[in-house]
């Protein structure tokens, strides 16, 4: 019993250790799954932010394009305004020229008038002289005023030319500016536009001053146009302000998205570090397990103790790791090697990145175990005894499946060869059907020609019979071979009439047939390639109907030439029928006789291939049966081993039962001796004797003489008590035996369950390792893709920044030149 209890606790201890190991692995797997989910979520958020950034960039480019369109429109309006101002300046120049000409004429008139006045000055009186002086003062004032106006106009004209050249320079500078502008540049352009508008206002003012000086209103609608341009300029300024505000908001949003992108990248890097830490920890945990049996392959890869295969989670040579990940991993392993001398606490694990509950659970489970090495040693010690049998079972199952696969492949080959043979037979049958169809067509044409010949022969026969009856009637009418009486004359006349009618109908039918043959053969009866009309148009049924229709057109007599033509047509139909018969083919039978069938070499190869395929199929079937028999043999051997194990346990139980029976027999004998001693002690005569014998240490067996002093009632009571005690002992023996059997059965069942549980643990561990490796590969591929995308984005961003900086520098230098 003690051994059974010890076995029970001995089996429960590795089970608890394996449960702890499974719990640790499950927690690590859960953390990895959670980290993968979080990583996927961050990737989704990053994609969303990238989409938002792209959208913001698109909107920014759209706004910049709109702003450029607005600037182009304003530039075009300014150019139009400049052209209008040029036209105004040209008109003003013309007016100035006209005014200069008028002033010259007035000066000439003034000089003439002055000469006249000087001549008549002596003739007029003093009053007229005073009037002349007043009249002279007035033109002098006018002339001085005109000269001042001309000088002022020339100054204003030069000022207007200067303003217009400034406007043209600003417009040319706006045309040469590039598309990508920042907010400061937009403000600078707005300032330039305002200066240009101020120049325009100054030009308009100068024009108004010129018009005011000239005293003429050249353009009465100029004030209205000016107010309209001012309103449009105010609207453009408001639109520029709204665009600048929108650009500021977009840049703020872009900065926010960049900040969120940076936070997402930091979170991603942190998650990567946590995943790498967990991977290194899991690799260290897995590396401590297989290192206890100290079995390594020549490639320094650990061997799985359950299956004997190479472990896939060994080194970094198999899986390419990114440079950043490799550097972080090496630093973490150094930190772990430096801190491996002391135990890891739950708070430290939680600070690394695992949740607090999982960290506490792992800390408690690892504190309960003395070392993780003991867990793997116990697992390996329990699983190494079963691995060989499992490997043998897997080999047998693999062999059976391979034989099954080979059998199916041979069946597939046989079916493909059979299918090819069926295809060849189908092609042969289709060719044979085509031959039959061609022969049927030839026979149909020959039958048609034969029917036409028969019809022509019938008409020739009718013509010959009618001619013969006509000759016979003529002979009768001439009186050759007949007696001349009145009745005979009447019969001869009727015979001649019938003969003429028959001759006429035969000739009409022959003419109709000749017309049909002429129509069918095109009038060239000597040509052999004439087309043949269907039998319905040349049949004897239609020939009576055509006779009546062609009787009116057949008034001409039937000559010997027509009869010869009909004979020629008959000969032509015979020739056509012979030619059609020559085109007929000799046909083989549908069913192939294997003895008389002429087989080609290709047919020999196909037949050999088919025979080989059949033989291979039979061979593979035999291999499959042999593999199944091997599998059955393996199962029988397994059952035999199980039965031998049961037999050995039964033998051990038998030995235990025998020992127990001997022990019980000794106990019964001792009880009998004690009973006999108690019986002997009741008698007074034998009490001293028994006491002496007991003191001497010798025991003598009871005899009948010693039992005689007992009464029958005492003997029966003693016997009943002995029987009762014997029954109780037997019942106790049975209980002990049943308890022992139950314990052995439970121990066997427990042992089998523990073995199966260890095997399941090994399989689960191998599956977990494979899944972890797959997830690791996928994760590393994703990391590589993300790093490549990040590098591409960084390069693209740097190129854009460089382009923007160069364009900004070029604009700044250009505007500085313009300012200078």
Automatic annotation (TrEMBL):
Source organism superkingdom: Eukaryota
InterPro entries: USBP1-like (IPR040171), USHBP1_PDZ-bd (IPR019536)
Biased composition, class Basic and acidic residues, residue ranges: 686-695
Residue ranges with Polar residues bias: 284-310
The Harmonin-binding protein USHBP1 PDZ-binding domain, residue ranges: 400-463, 728-794
A Gene Ontology term for the protein's cellular component: cytoplasm
Region listing for Disordered, in residue ranges: 118-140, 280-318, 669-697
GO biological process: negative regulation of canonical Wnt signaling pathway
Keywords recorded for this protein, A-Z: Coiled coil
Regions annotated as coiled coil: 391-425, 570-646, 712-796
Protein's name in the database: MCC regulator of WNT signaling pathway
Natural source organism: Cyanistes caeruleus (Eurasian blue tit)
């Amino acid at each position: 019993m003690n051994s059974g209890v010890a076995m029970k606790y001995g089996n429960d201890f590795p089970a608890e250790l394996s449960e702890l190991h499974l719990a640790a692995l499950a927690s690590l797997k859960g953390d990895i799954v959670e980290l993968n989910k979080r990583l996927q979520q961050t990737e989704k958020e990053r994609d969303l932010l990238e989409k938002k950034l792209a959208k913001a960039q698109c909107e920014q480019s759209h706004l910049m394009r709109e702003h450029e369109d607005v600037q182009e429109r304003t530039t075009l309006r300014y150019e139009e305004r400049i052209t209008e101002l040029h036209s105004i300046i040209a008109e003003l120049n013309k007016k100035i020229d006209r005014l200069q000409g008028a002033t010259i004429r007035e000066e000439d008139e003034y000089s003439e008038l002055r000469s006249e006045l000087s001549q008549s000055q002596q003739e007029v009186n003093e009053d007229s002289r005073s009037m002349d002086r007043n009249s002279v003062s007035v033109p002098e004032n006018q002339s001085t005023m005109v000269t001042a106006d001309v000088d002022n106009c020339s100054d204003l004209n030069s000022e207007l030319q200067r303003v217009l050249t400034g406007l043209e320079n600003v417009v040319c500078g706006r045309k040469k500016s590039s598309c990508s502008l920042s907010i400061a540049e937009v403000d600078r352009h707005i300032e330039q536009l305002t200066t240009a508008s101020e120049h325009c206002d100054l030009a308009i003012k100068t024009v108004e001053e010129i018009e005011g000086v000239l005293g003429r209103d050249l353009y009465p609608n100029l004030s209205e146009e000016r107010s309209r341009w001012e309103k449009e300029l105010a609207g453009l300024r408001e639109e520029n302000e709204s665009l600048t505000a929108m650009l500021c908001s977009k840049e703020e949003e872009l900065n926010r998205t960049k900040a969120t992108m940076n936070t997402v990248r930091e979170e991603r890097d942190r998650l990567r570090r946590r995943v790498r830490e967990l991977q290194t920890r899991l690799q260290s945990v897995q590396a401590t397990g297989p290192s206890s049996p100290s079995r390594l392959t020549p490639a320094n890869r650990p061997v799985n103790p359950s299956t004997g295969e190479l472990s896939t989670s060994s080194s970094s040579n198999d899986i390419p790791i990114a440079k950043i990940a490799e550097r972080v991993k090496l630093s973490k392993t150094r930190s772990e090697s430096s801190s491996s001398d002391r135990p890891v606490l739950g708070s430290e694990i939680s600070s690394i990145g695992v949740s607090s509950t999982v960290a506490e659970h792992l800390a408690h489970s690892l504190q309960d175990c003395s070392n993780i090495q003991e867990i793997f040693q116990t697992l390996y010690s329990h699983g190494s005894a079963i691995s060989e049998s499992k490997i043998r079972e897997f080999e047998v199952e693999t062999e059976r499946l391979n034989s099954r696969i080979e059998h199916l492949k041979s069946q597939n080959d046989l079916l493909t060869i059979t299918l090819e043979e069926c295809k060849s037979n189908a092609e042969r049958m289709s060719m044979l059907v085509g031959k039959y169809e061609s022969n049927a067509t030839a026979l149909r044409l020959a039958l048609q020609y034969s029917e036409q010949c028969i019809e022509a022969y019938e008409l020739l026969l009718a013509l010959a019979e009618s001619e013969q009856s006509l000759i016979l009637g003529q002979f009768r009418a001439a009186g050759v071979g007949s007696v001349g009486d009145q009745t005979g004359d009447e019969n001869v006349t009727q015979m001649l009439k019938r003969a003429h009618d028959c001759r006429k109908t035969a000739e009409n039918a022959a003419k109709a047939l000749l017309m049909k043959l002429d129509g069918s053969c095109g009038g060239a009866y000597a040509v052999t390639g004439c087309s043949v009309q269907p039998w319905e148009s040349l049949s004897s049924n239609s020939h009576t109907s055509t006779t009546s229709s062609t009787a009116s057109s057949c008034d001409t007599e039937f000559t010997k030439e027509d009869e010869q033509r009909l004979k020629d047509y008959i000969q032509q139909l015979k020739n056509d029928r012979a030619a059609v018969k020559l085109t007929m083919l000799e046909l083989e039978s549908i069913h192939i006789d294997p003895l008389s069938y002429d087989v080609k070499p290709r047919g020999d190869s196909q037949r050999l291939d088919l025979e080989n395929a059949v033989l291979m199929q039979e061979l593979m079937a035999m291999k499959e049966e042999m593999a199944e028999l091997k599998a059955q043999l393996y199962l029988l051997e397994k059952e035999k081993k199980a039965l031998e194990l049961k037999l050995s346990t039964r033998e051990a139980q038998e030995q235990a039962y025998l020992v127990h029976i001997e022990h019980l027999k000794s106990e019964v004998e001792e009880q009998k001796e004690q009973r006999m001693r108690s019986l002997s002690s009741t008698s007074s005569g034998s009490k001293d004797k028994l006491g002496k014998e007991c003191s001497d240490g010798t025991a003598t067996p009871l005899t009948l003489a010693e039992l005689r002093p007992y009464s029958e009632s005492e003997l029966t009571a003693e016997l009943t008590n002995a029987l009762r005690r014997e029954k109780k002992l037997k019942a106790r023996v049975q209980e002990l035996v049943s308890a022992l059997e139950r314990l052995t059965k439970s121990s066997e069942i427990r042992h089998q369950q523990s073995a199966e549980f260890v095997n399941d643990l090994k399989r689960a561990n191998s599956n977990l390792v494979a899944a972890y490796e797959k997830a690791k590969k996928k994760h590393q591929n994703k990391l590589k893709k993300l790093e490549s995308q990040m590098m591409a984005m960084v390069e693209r961003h740097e190129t854009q920044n460089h382009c923007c900086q160069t364009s900004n520098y070029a604009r700044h230098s250009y505007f500085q030149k313009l300012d200078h």
